[in-house]
Write a structure and sequence with these properties.
52% helix; globular; binds pyridoxal-5'-phosphate; 5-stranded parallel sheet; alpha/beta; two-stranded antiparallel sheet; Aspartate Aminotransferase, domain 2
Length: 246
């Protein structure tokens, strides 16, 4: 991948849509990337795929676009399980439009989303639900299909943050029926190492392992795991520098 990035930036880096060689190559690279992302997420068309600087920026931009239709008195739902990037953009957009923001609680005993609380917040005024597929702090998995089905009954849109989920399991946006789903290339690459280490036990086990570590407050084990991961990352970095210098 490093070679592909280096080759592109060194030889073809260009704007899109120009009538010259490097621009045509850029169009082709972007088309291939869209097709790959479509396959990765199970999207109906490559046209459904949008690339941006990162998940946070994309969420901010989308929140500005869709909140244009919101009215004062409308409501949106965010969750206490989510990364702040899937909360703050929606809060800001809601504040600008006089929209009420509800936050779904987390069950403190096991760090899962409180579905009953979610259902109690949902009503005919709900315009959007922003929810994570997997928490980056506790590793908890969310039954997003359940959230989506309930939200669609009141015609609310659902924005799923799959940044932490996508590196560990397959995403199928059509099976989920979500309106929007975001993931992040940088997180996927960084977490590949974690995925490899625990690959044979699957992602659910990985999520539970993190959760158990947190619950048992076994900081010693957690510290040792993190130390090994950091060492691996360090070696990866050295390998990258060595390879790019050749
Ligand atoms: C669950 C989750 N959502 C969102 C983000 C933000 O992603 P990005 O860095 O692409 O903006 C992160 C970053 O670690 C994350 O873990």
């Amino acid at each position: 991948m490093l070679d592909a990035i280096t080759a592109y930036l060194g030889h073809y880096n260009s704007n899109l849509g120009g009538a010259f060689f490097s621009s045509a190559e850029t169009v082709s690279v972007v088309e291939k990337a869209r097709a790959s992302a479509q396959a990765l997420l199970g999207a109906p068309s490559a046209d459904n795929i949008v690339f941006g600087a990162n998940m946070t920026s994309l969420t901010f931009q989308l929140s500005r676009a869709i909140s244009r239709d919101w009215q004062a008195g409308d409501e949106i739902i965010v969750t206490a399980l989510d990364h702040y990037s899937n909360v703050s953009s929606w809060q800001q957009a809601a504040e600008d439009k006089g929209v009420i923001v509800h936050q779904v609680r987390v069950n403190e005993a096991d760090c899962t989303l409180d579905y009953d609380h979610f259902l109690s917040l949902l009503n005919a005024n709900t315009r959007l639900v922003a929810v994570t597929y997997a928490s980056n702090t506790t590793g908890s998995l969310v039954d997003v299909k359940r959230v989506i089905e309930a939200a669609h009954q009141v015609e609310a849109q659902v924005y799923v943050d799959a940044v932490h989920y996508a590196p560990h399991a397959l995403v199928d946006v059509q099976a989920l029926g979500c309106d929007f789903l975001a993931c992040s290339a940088i997180s996927s690459l960084a977490r590949m190492w974690e995925l490899r280490i625990l690959h044979q036990n699957g992602c659910r086990h990985f999520a539970r392992t993190r959760l158990n570590l947190r619950q048992s407050r076994d900081r010693g084990v957690l510290k040792r795991v993190l130390k090994v991961l950091r060492r691996w990352q360090d070696w990866l970095l050295r390998l990258s520098i060595w390879r790019s210098g050749r």
